[in-house]
UniProtKB/TrEMBL annotation:
Domain Aminoacyl-tRNA synthetase class I anticodon-binding: 340-462
Binding partners and assembly: Monomer.
Enzyme class: ligase
Renumbered ranges of motif 'KMSKS' region: 239-243
Gene3D superfamilies, A to Z: 1.10.10.350, HUPs
Top-rank taxon, per record: Bacteria
Transmembrane residue ranges: none
Protein's recorded name: Glutamate--tRNA ligase
Keywords in alphabetical order: Aminoacyl-tRNA synthetase, ATP-binding, Cytoplasm, Ligase, Nucleotide-binding, Protein biosynthesis
Family, per entry: Belongs to the class-I aminoacyl-tRNA synthetase family. Glutamate--tRNA ligase type 1 subfamily.
Amino acid sequence: MSDQIVTRFAPSPTGFLHIGGARTALFNWLFARGRGGKFLIRIEDTDRARSTPEATQAIIDGMAWLGLDHDGEIVSQFEQAERHRAVALELLEKGAAYKCFSTQEEIEAFREQARAEKRSTLFQSPWRDADPASHPDAPYAIRLKTPQEGETVIEDQVQGRVTIRNDQLDDMILLRSDGTPVYMLAVVVDDHDMGVTHVIRGDDHLNNTARQMGIYTAMGWELPVYGHISLIHGEDGKKLSKRHGALGVEEYRDMGYPAAGLRNYLARLGWSHGDDEYFTDAQAQEWFGFDGMNKSPARFDFKKLANICGQHIAAADNAALLKETLAFREVTGQPALSEQKINLLSLAMPVLKERAKTFPELLDKAHFCLAERPLQVEEKAAKSLDPVSIGILTELTPHLQNASWTRQDLEGELTTFAEAREMKFGQLAAPLRAALAGRSATPSVYDMMLVLGREEVLLRLGDVTGNGAA
């Protein structure tokens, strides 16, 4: 086996990038990246009726958004069909496979009789040991000669030692009677040709592995290391489906979860590193391995996802977070922001990212700097703008015209102003919030004033008091 680790993600392009597939891709990416290896992508597009270019693009886009970069060109399984056929013919040539002339009707008749006699319906081809001289001039499939005695042992890195009796395995078809290779053959040939050293995939593929190992053995190829990971279940313990909520990665993107947070959360579904819940990509790549994987299914928990995402937003670089926020607005069809609004959003980012779990939450907090004058004042906030409060804001305006525009000085100015009028600070803050944001729930008035700047603050106060920006 190569000294370099090579993993792969091999989705079927029949729809979006499923959250379970994304987790499988992430595990393969982490395993390779943490060991200086290669992470490859193969599109398993042999099902021509269901595979679409749109689905392929959706998977590639989903991977790109999730931040899972890959090495080399993306491989199309369909385009390797000639190579798959050649391997089937090579197995036939060396006696490890045989021509089977049994028709579908004959196979179904065999199974019906087996069911009636309450014995195994595993088809045993009468052509396995037939003399080639007796072969008819008719279409035939090529079947692998599976050992009929003994056991196939999978030394699985997650599930442990898995033993399957060979008499439970059929002689798998490699090439159909129309000459097309089957998926099970294609997977093995592609993994071998791509130099895949570690196959990390869902434990629903465990039975396939026993059958695929027969091809490796017959070809004299070295087996990859297998790790079959548990599936993801909903909070009710049942297999993840539409009834549990979003299934596609793009749905999580459109709901405004940051990619870093989703990566972190998915890594914790079926794998753990002590009690660590929050970690960076660098830590995940350093820590990730088979020893932390669980056999039992992981449960998807939206509250935990939101909590992890909130931590990633809070820890994010401000410039990178601004870029992601603008990308979120674009992908969800929101209007482009002016350069002035982008600058305000950038200034506000240190304030906005605290306690925001998603981009919609962050943008909701940013309302004060994105809204256009004159502000639409919400009903609850409007109650803070009674005649007495408007009088207070009118009185406050000249003090702000002359104040030094630093947090310390603004705090001093407003505190002194409130004390001089024997007001609680809340009595001043409520109408200020309404004037500066049109809302009652906002970031701190000082944060808003510092982001908006003196000129804009005075203009907004003037809109409310009717005094203009005197």
